[in-house]
Structure formats: structure tokens, C-alpha cells
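=== RUN LOG ===
request id: a7f3
mode: sequence -> structure
chains: 1
length: 244
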Amino acid sequence: MRAFLAFLLLSLWSGTAAMAQPVVVDLSKESVDITAGFTGTDVLLFGATSGYGEVVVVIEGPKKTVSVRRKERVAGIWVNGDQVDFENVPAFYKVLSTNSLDEWLPLAVREENQIGVEYLNLKPRGDVPAAEASEYRAALIRNKQQIEQYGLVEDRLELAGGRLFRSNVYFPSNVPVGKYFVRTYLVDKGKIVITRSIPLYIRKVGIEADVYRVAHQHSALYGIAAIIIAVIAGLGGNALFRKR
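=== RESULT ===
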């Protein structure tokens, strides 16, 4: 209902006060709640422009340090080999646009604003040879795309009447928690003329939130409790099979 009313207001706005705000954007909800039965969800992104230019939307999750390991075969067994750590890696990253970026957005603009996974500023920690860093960087992006936390290519924003735009943004079941940023760019003649940014919160609720909080705030106690539960479960299972 909120999305429908907002989209209706945007329709009225686009025909009256369009020149006052060149671009506006909103989401159908301000947060995504992750419960025990969470299997992924769609969030409706919608907005309007004053009728000129193209629109690009970048959805970026919280930044973290990510380790990439090389698999090596030793004595017929696959084991973890060398490791490279990347800092300030977006936990989630997707791009949406009204048209294919390759057709109208200059590469210099994409690189400057990190629009597209190939333009993300992912730098390894420490002294890593350029060729090796490039290989590990490609593996990082490929792994993120395989688990649907990074987009393969830009998704399409649906246009209506040359002013209104919308798209359903899918967040998978493994979406990382934290504060996300939804950045909207209005591009005219190859230049970004307006930028808007709104937050989106991904959070755990219920028993999922309690377990997550204990695991991060009291990691030692959580580890001990996990071991005790595993031992009790093992002894219980052993006793049950003995009776049979």
C-alpha cells in the first residue's frame, strides 16, 4: 500500500512540480527483517525524473574485509592454499539503469563513481603482485556473483511515460546484515548532474537476532555453548542407538 500511494504521488508530481526536483526515489520498505524462515525477498524501488537524462541506481551493502583462498591439490586432496585479503569490499552490490550502460555512460564516469563490479576499487592488503591481485580480485567477484550478492550485469529500470521508473530488487536468503545505501544518479549527456542517496537496513529479528548478537558480542561463550550442545547431542544419539 505504501508503495502504491507513493507511486501515485510520484505520478502527480511528475506532471506538476517536476522542475523543482530533477529526480526522486524511494523504496517500498525501509528495512528487510531476516527471520528463521527467511528465503529472500523483493524490495520495490521506484522514482521519477523531470523527463530528461538517464537514471542509474547503485545498491551497496556494508564494507568488510574479505579473504580469498586458492584451492590446491595435495596428495589427491583439495586444500586451502595461498590467501589474499581485500579491504572495504561491499558485502552486496547491484546496479540498475534505464538503458544499457555501455551505450551511454562514459567509462571515465563509471570508474570515478565505481558504477559496475568491474569498476569497484578492490585493493588487496599488503604487497601483492599486480597479476596475482587481478586474479584473486576476479575470483572474489565471481564468488559473490555465484551466491547472488553481486549482480552479473546491470538490471533494468522499467520506465513509464518517460518520467517514472521502478524495479524489484531481489535480496537472497544469504544477504548480509547492516546498513545499505541506495544511490541514484541522474545522467545527462554523459555527465552526472544529480545524486540522491537513501538508506536501507537489513537486520535479523527474533531468535535469529538473539543468536547473531550472542555469537558476535560473546563469541567465547557462544563457542563453549556450541561445543556443549554438540557433546550432549552426540551422547544422546549414542545412547539411543545402544538401546536399539
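=== NOTES ===
The chain has six helices and 13 strands.
Confidence is low (pLDDT under 50) at residues 12-19.
=== END ===
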